[in-house]
């Protein structure tokens, strides 16, 4: 390790970094390193060799009182009760889950059958929708003489235009049929009148 570090150029490393790179313990250099949290980190990293007095890392009476007031720790009795309650809750949750699994297992066959029925219905519906779309595409193509993409925003407009035209033609055909029936009635009446005049 020392040989590898020695071969490195010394230009980029200051004395502190060189000591760290060589595996040594750097001396206390900055003010923040005198604070308790930094001393704790130093002791945690380098151990007894760090030269940190572990007595200064121990919490003071004020800090202990603050920790106690925040209730960041529990007494052994409280912890045991909490563990017991947690265990009971976990057992109850597990029992409920097993009951639910049993209930679901009893309904499994019926639910599976229902699922397959719904799936078959949805497939039939999709097939019908596809056929309906193809029919609309064919109608538009026959009416306008060219193929139109159903995703095209003009498609719905063209389909509506074609439907309006078909409705108009049907209406005209009905009116024509009515007129034809009226003519037949009138001609039949005229013929009856002529026959009655001839007989009289």
UniProtKB/TrEMBL annotation:
Tell me any Pfam family this protein matches.
CR6_interact
Query: What residue intervals traverse the membrane?
Result: none
Q: Which residues form a coiled coil?
A: 75-143
Record bears the keyword Methyltransferase = no
InterPro entries assigned to the protein according to its UniProt record, in alphabetical order: Ribosomal_mL64, Ribosomal_mL64_sf
GO terms for CC? mitochondrion; nucleus; ribonucleoprotein complex; ribosome
Subcellular location, principal: mitochondrion
Cellular localisation: Mitochondrion; Nucleus
Q: Does the keyword Lipid biosynthesis apply?
A: no
User: Mind listing the UniProt keywords for this protein, alphabetically?
Assistant: Cell cycle, Coiled coil, Mitochondrion, Nucleus, Ribonucleoprotein, Ribosomal protein
Question: What is this protein's function?
Answer: Acts as a negative regulator of G1 to S cell cycle phase progression by inhibiting cyclin-dependent kinases. Inhibitory effects are additive with GADD45 proteins but also occur in the absence of GADD45 proteins. Acts as a repressor of the orphan nuclear receptor NR4A1 by inhibiting AB domain-mediated transcriptional activity. May be involved in the hormone-mediated regulation of NR4A1 transcriptional activity. May play a role in mitochondrial protein synthesis.
Give the family this protein belongs to, as stated in its UniProt record.
Belongs to the mitochondrion-specific ribosomal protein mL64 family.
Name under which the protein is recorded: Large ribosomal subunit protein mL64
């Amino acid at each position: 390790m020392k040989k590898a570090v020695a071969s490195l150029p010394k230009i980029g490393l200051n004395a502190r970094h060189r000591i760290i790179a060589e595996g040594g313990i750097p001396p206390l250099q900055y003010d923040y390193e005198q604070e308790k949290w930094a001393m704790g980190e130093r002791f945690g990293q380098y151990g007894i060799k760090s030269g940190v007095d572990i007595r200064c890392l121990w919490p003071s009476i004020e800090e202990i009182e603050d920790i106690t007031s925040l209730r960041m720790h529990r007494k052994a009795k409280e912890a045991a009760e909490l563990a017991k309650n947690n265990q009971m809750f976990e057992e109850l949750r597990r029992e409920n889950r097993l009951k639910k699994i049993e209930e679901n297992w009893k309904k499994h066959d019926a639910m599976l059958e229902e699922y397959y029925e719904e799936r078959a219905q949805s497939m039939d519906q999709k097939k019908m929708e596809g056929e309906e779309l193809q029919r609309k595409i064919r109608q538009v193509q026959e009416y306008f003489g060219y193929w139109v993409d159903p995703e095209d925003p003009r498609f719905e407009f063209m389909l509506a235009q074609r439907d309006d035209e078909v409705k108009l033609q049907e209406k005209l055909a009905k009116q024509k049929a009515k007129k034809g029936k009226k003519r037949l009635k009138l001609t039949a009446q005229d013929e009856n009148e002529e026959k009655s005049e001839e007989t009289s």
